[in-house]
Amino acid sequence: MTSFLMAKGLSRDFGSTLALRDLDLTLAVGERVALLGPNGAGKTTLLRLLGGSLAPDAGTVAINGLSPKDARQTPGLIGWLPERAPLVADLTVLEHLKLTASFLGLNPIDAAQQIDLLTEALNLSLKLNRLSGQLSLGSRRQAALAIALMGPPKFLLLDEPAASLDPDEVVRLRRFLNHLPKDRVVLISSHAIGEAAKVTSRALILKGGQLVATPFWAELGPDLEAGYLSLVGEHAKV
């Protein structure tokens, strides 16, 4: 398979806290992968490094031949959902989506089609004209997801995408991800192992800032959580 992302020797400290330690990672074109690990394992740090919002202390990353910073500035390459939704309080959801479409260089017809598609897929029709600052936490998450999914981009980096969503919205998101073009690359950080397994083929398991395993789901056995705990320790929190 053709490599899309290659990371070598990634390390990152925050003062006395070591978030990532000498991590190597390769993702192929079309791979859908879940990022798992206990709280503090380095999942969000890794996503931020790959998304270009944080620089490593050591190591290199190439995304489709580009640095993360250049990849992030390339329209249509990276769709990034961070831990906290990056919404402007006095803009409506629709205004956010139109601005995203403009950044991507979409013509008005394609922009309208993309907005309609995401509005239907994520159940945003009643929220389009509401100010972001007036939205509930779950609705803000939906809006941020729509921004990240616009295009759709070649590489999706999603940090806990189902957090704060109700069950119907989780199903809608799952359906959308499962119908993405086959060449898209998806990396999802998640605490919900069972849900992550429905939209990805394998897991990257972090512990203490290191990559400890990269199993396909079947390798974890019929009880995914038990298989996960056997790798990170019985007392680890997902």
Give the SSE order as H and E letters: EEEHEHEHHHEHEHEEH
> Main β-sheet, in a few words?
6 strands, mixed
Q: pLDDT below 50 for ≥5 consecutive residues: which ranges?
A: none
* Gross morphology: globular
Give the number of DSSP strands. Answer: 9
Work out the helix count.
8
Rounded to the nearest angstrom, the radius of gyration is: 18 Å
Biggest sheet strand line-up: 5-6-7-3-8-9
Termini, distance in Å?
A: 30 Å
CATH superfamily of one domain: P-loop containing nucleotide triphosphate hydrolases
Q: Give the C-level CATH assignment of one domain.
A: Alpha Beta
Q: Report strand %.
A: 15-25%
What does the average pLDDT come to?
A: 93
Q: Write the CATH architecture name of one domain.
A: 3-Layer(aba) Sandwich
Helical amount among residues, as a percent range? 25-40%
